[in-house]
Design a protein that fits this description.
Radius of gyration: 27 Å
CATH superfamily of the largest domain: Glycosidases
EC number: 3.2.1.131
Family: Belongs to the glycosyl hydrolase 67 family.
Number of domains: 4
CATH topology of the largest domain: TIM Barrel
Largest sheet: 8 strands, parallel, barrel
Subunit structure: Homodimer.
Structural class: alpha/beta
Number of helices: 22
Number of strands: 13
Bound molecules: beta-D-glucopyranuronic acid
CATH class of the largest domain: Alpha Beta
GO molecular function: hydrolase activity
Oligomer: single chain
Enzyme class: hydrolase
Strand content: 5-15%
CATH architecture of the largest domain: Alpha-Beta Barrel
C-alpha cells in the first residue's frame, strides 16, 4: 500500500518540467513552514479570545502582573489558572511566574477563600455573590499592592478571571479595581438544533460540531474550545440536540457519547441537557403509550433519568417541544402541557434536574390567530407546573421574526418561571451572510414594559424573577455554532453569540457597550475602528427590518428554507405557514388586524399595553401592520401615505447596507486582510439580497396597492414573476 502510494507520487512529479517541479517544492515547503508556525492567520477561530499583545499606550495603563497566585487543585481551578497564564502571556508578552504567596507588588491573586488563604479576609465581601459571582479588587496583601479575583466557588473565580482578561483586552484601566458581578439569571443555556446526522436545523455555519459517530472514542479538541468560549461569557448549560428530537439520543449508546461531552464541559462550569422526545417511551421503550398519567410511562421516565444520572451526575435536564409543528406531546392523550412537564419533572427532581418546556405551540387545527395560541394554552395552567419546570417562551408570539413585539406571556404567568428563548442563528435575518447585530433587538425586548405590575415591569424583570419572584430563572439561545472554522459562519455572527452570553449574565446590560467590548476584543482597540464598527452594528438591525419586513410586517420569507422574500407564499398544508396569512394585503389595504375588531390579540397584553398597541394613533409605527390593517393611503407619521412610507423604508434599508459597505471599505488596512475581505464580500452579498428583498416585495405589494412608486424611487428591475420563479433547492439549514 505504502509503496504503491509512493510510486504514484513519483510518477506524478516526474511528469512535470523542472521549473514546475521547483514551484511545487516551494509550495510544499511554504505549506510545511506555515504548519510549523503557530496559527497567526486571523481566520476567526480564536473568537474574542485572541489575546494579541497589547500595543502601547494601553499596555502602560495595565499594571504589569508580576506573579500569579492561584491554586490548581480542582479541574476548574486548573483551567482558570491556565487561562490566566495564556491570556496574560499573550496580552503582556510573557506569562507571569506562579507563586504561592504575595511576595512583591503587582501579584494577581485568584481563587476562593479556601483555595487561596490570603483571600480569606475577603469572605464577608463575598456575601450575596452566590455560587457564580465574583469580586475583582485592587488591594494590599501582605503589605504589597495586588489584585484579587475572589469568589465563593471555583466557578466564580473562573468567570472573574475571564472578566479580568476582558478588562485588559478592551484597554480598561486595571489599577484601581472594585468590581462585583453575579449573574442575574441562573440557567444560561445554548440550544443546539443539531440532529444526530450532523445536520443543523436552521444552521448556517456548516455541520454540527458534535461528531456523534466518533464519540466517545474521539474527543475533538474543539469541544474544549467551545466550552472555554462559552465559559468566557458565562454560559453554563448546553442542550446538545434539536428540539425536533430523535428519541435515540436517550438510548445507552448515545448517553455514553453525551457523558463524554459532559466530561469535557464540566471544568468550564457547563452542564449538558437533552431535548427529550415525548414519545420516547413508545419509540425506544417498547411501551404502547406515552400518556403522562400512565404509571408505566412515569416509571419509564424515572428509570431513564436514573440511567442518565448514573452516567452524568450533573446532567441539567430536559428541553421539550411538545404538541407543536407535529411533535408528539401530552395533548395526544388528552392531557395538558402541565401534565406532560410535571411527569418529566418528577423523574428529574430527585437529581435536581429541570424541565424546560417550550411555549412555542400552535396548531393549524386551531382557527384562532397563531399569535394568540401560546397564551391561550398556557395562561390557564399558571401555578400548575412543578417547581423544577420552566416555561421557555420565544421573544415574540410568532417566530423569531426580524422584529416582534414582546410575547404577551411575559408578565402573564406570575406563578411560573418563564425563560426567554432568543434565536442567535439568523433564520429570518439573512442567515450567516447578512451583518445583523442582534444586541439591539434583544435589548428592545428585554426593556419592553409589560406593565404586569404597573409601570417599569420590564421583560428583563419578569425573567430575572425580580418582578414575581419565580425561581429558577433562565434564558436560552438557539445556537449559531457549527463546524465552520470561524464557528458562526461569519465573523460578525460571533458578536451575536457573544452578546447573548453577556445579556444572559445581565439582561439589563447595554447592547452598545457589549458591542464595543466585542469589537475591541475581536478586531481592534483603535477608536478609529471601534466607533464606526459599533455604529454600524447598532444600525444593522433596523436596516434588516427595513429591507425585509418594514412597519410590522412579518413572516414573508421563502417557503421551507426561509431564504429570501416570499410574500406571495400561499396554499400548502397549513394557512399559518403562508405569508398571505400574515400580511393580509388586498386592494383595500395591508396588515393583520389584531385589535378588538380583528383577532383581538392585543387583549392578551396588560391593559395599558393593549391600549397602546390597539390604538392607531399610539401604536409604535414599527408595529403598525403587526396590529392593524390599514388602507394604502393611510397617513403615516412622516406625512407619507402608507404605500409611500413602505417604499421609503425598503429603500432606507438598502441604503443602510450600502452605508455599511462604505464604512467597512474605509477600514481597509486597519483590520487584518483576511477577515476584512470576507466581511467585505459578505456585505456585497447582503446588499444584493437587500435589494432583492426590496424589489420583490415592492413588485408584489404593488399589485394590491395599485399605486406608482413615489418620486425618486426606482421600480423593481424585473417583473414579479421573475422573483416568484426563483428556487433554492439547496439552501442551508432547512427543517427536515
Ligand atoms: C421555527 C423553525 C423550525 C423550528 C421551530 C421551533 O423554522 O425549524 O423547529 O421554529 O422553534 O422558527 O421549534
Amino acid at each position: 500500500m505504502r509503496r504503491a502510494c509512493g510510486s504514484r507520487i513519483a510518477t506524478w512529479a516526474g511528469r512535470r518540467p523542472g521549473w514546475r517541479r521547483a514551484g511545487v517544492l516551494a509550495a510544499v515547503l511554504a505549506l510545511a513552514a506555515a504548519w510549523a508556525i503557530p496559527a497567526v492567520a486571523e481566520d476567526g477561530h480564536a473568537l474574542w479570545l485572541r489575546y494579541q499583545p497589547l500595543a502601547e499606550p494601553a499596555r502602560g495603563s495595565a499594571a504589569p502582573v508580576t506573579a500569579l497566585v492561584a491554586a490548581a487543585a480542582t479541574p476548574i481551578q486548573a483551567v482558570a489558572r491556565q487561562e490566566l497564564l495564556r491570556g496574560l502571556g499573550g496580552l503582556l508578552g510573557t506569562a507571569p511566574p506562579l507563586a504561592d504567596a504575595v511576595a512583591r507588588p503587582g501579584a494577581l491573586v485568584v481563587g476562593t477563600p479556601e483555595s487561596v488563604p490570603a483571600l480569606a479576609r475577603l469572605r464577608p465581601a463575598l456575601e450575596g455573590l452566590g455560587r457564580e459571582g465574583y469580586l475583582i479588587r485592587s488591594l494590599e496583601i501582605d503589605g504589597h499592592p495586588a489584585t484579587a479575583i475572589v469568589a465563593n466557588q471555583d466557578i466564580g473565580a473562573l468567570y472573574g478571571a475571564f472578566h479580568y482578561l476582558r478588562l485588559l483586552q478592551t484597554g480598561a484601566p486595571v489599577d484601581a479595581l472594585d468590581l462585583r458581578s453575579a449573574p442575574k439569571l441562573q440557567l444560561r443555556v445554548l440550544n443546539h438544533w443539531d440532529n444526530l446526522d450532523r445536520h443543523v436545523e436552521r444552521g448556517y455555519a456548516g455541520q454540527s460540531i458534535w461528531d456523534w459517530h466518533r464519540l466517545p472514542g474521539w474527543i475533538e479538541p474543539r469541544y474544549t474550545d467551545y466550552a472555554r468560549a462559552n465559559a468566557s461569557i458565562g454560559i453554563n448549560g448546553t442542550v446538545l440536540n434539536n428540539v425536533n428530537a430523535n428519541a435515540l439520543v436517550l438510548t445507552p449508546m448515545y448517553l455514553e457519547k453525551v457523558a463524554a461531552l459532559a466530561e469535557v464541559f464540566r471544568p468550564w462550569g457547563i452542564r449538558v441537557y437533552l431535548s427529550a422526545r415525548f414519545s420516547a417511551p413508545v419509540e425506544i421503550g417498547g411501551l404502547a403509550t406515552a400518556d403522562p398519567l400512565d404509571p408505566a410511562v412515569r416509571r419509564w421516565w424515572r428509570a431513564k433519568a436514573d440511567q442518565i444520572y448514573a452516567r452524568i451526575p450533573d446532567f441539567g435536564g430536559f428541553l421539550v417541544k411538545a404538541n407543536s409543528e407535529g411533535q408528539p406531546g401530552p395533548q395526544d392523550y388528552g392531557r395538558s402541557h402541565a401534565d406532560g412537564a410535571n411527569m418529566l419533572a418528577e423523574a428529574l427532581a430527585p437529581h435536581e434536574g429541570v424541565v424546560m418546556w417550550r411555549a412555542f405551540v400552535y396548531s393549524d387545527e386551531e382557527p384562532d390567530d397563531r399569535a394568540k395560541q401560546a397564551y391561550t394554552e398556557f395562561v390557564p395552567h399558571d401555578g400548575e407546573f412543578a417547581d423544577n419546570v420552566l416555561v421557555q417562551v420565544k421573544n415574540g408570539a410568532i417566530d423569531f421574526q426580524p422584529r416582534e413585539p414582546f410575547h404577551p406571556l411575559f408578565g402573564a404567568m406570575p406563578q411560573t418561571p418563564l425563560m426567554m428563548e432568543f434565536q442567535i442563528t439568523k433564520e429570518y435575518l439573512g442567515f450567516a451572510t447578512h451583518l445583523v447585530y442582534l444586541g439591539p433587538m434583544w435589548e428592545e425586548v428585554l426593556r419592553a414594559d409589560t406593565h404586569a405590575e404597573g409601570e417599569g415591569s420590564t421583560v428583563a424583570k419578569v425573567i430575572d424573577g425580580s418582578l414575581h419572584g419565580q425561581r429558577p430563572t433562565g434564558i436560552a439561545g438557539v445556537a449559531n455554532i457549527g463546524s465552520d472554522r470561524n464557528w458562526s459562519g461569519s465573523h460578525f455572527d460571533q458578536a451575536n453569540w457573544y452578546a447573548y452570553g453577556r445579556l444572559a449574565w445581565d439582561p439589563h446590560a447595554s447592547a452598545r457597550e457589549i458591542a464595543a467590548d466585542w469589537v475591541r476584543m475581536t478586531f481592534s482597540r483603535d477608536p478609529a475602528v471601534v466607533e464606526p464598527v459599533v455604529d454600524m452594528m447598532m444600525a444593522s438591525h433596523q436596516a434588516v427590518v427595513d429591507y425585509m419586513t418594514p412597519l410590522g410586517l412579518h413572516h414573508l420569507m421563502g417557503r421551507g428554507h426561509h431564504y429570501g422574500p416570499g410574500p406571495w407564499v400561499e396554499g400548502g398544508p397549513r394557512a399559518d405557514w403562508t405569508s398571505v396569512y400574515f400580511h393580509r394585503a388586498s386592494r383595500d389595504g395591508i396588515g393583520f388586524d389584531r385589535t378588538a375588531t380583528g383577532s383581538d390579540a392585543v387583549s392578551q397584553y396588560a391593559p395599558p399595553v393593549a391600549r397602546q398597541f390597539g390604538d392607531l394613533e399610539r401604536v409604535p409605527e414599527d408595529f403598525l401592520l403587526w396590529f392593524h390593517h390599514v388602507p394604502w393611503d393611510y397617513r403615516t407619521r412622516s406625512g407619507r401615505p402608507l404605500w409611500d412610507e413602505l417604499v421609503h423604508r425598503y429603500d432606507r434599508g438598502v441604503a443602510a447596507v450600502r452605508e455599511m459597505r462604505a464604512t467597512w471599505d474605509g477600514l481597509e488596512g486597519r483590520i487584518d486582510p483576511e477577515r476584512h475581505a470576507q466581511v467585505a464580500a459578505f456585505l456585497a452579498i447582503q446588499e444584493q439580497e437587500a435589494q432583492w428583498w426590496r424589489d420583490a416585495s415592492i413588485a408584489y405589494f404593488q399589485t394590491f396597492a395599485q399605486r406608482p412608486l413615489p418620486d425618486g424611487h426606482a421600480p423593481p428591475p424585473q417583473p414579479l414573476e421573475h422573483y416568484q420563479a426563483l428556487e433554492f433547492p439547496h439552501a442551508p439549514g432547512d427543517g427536515r
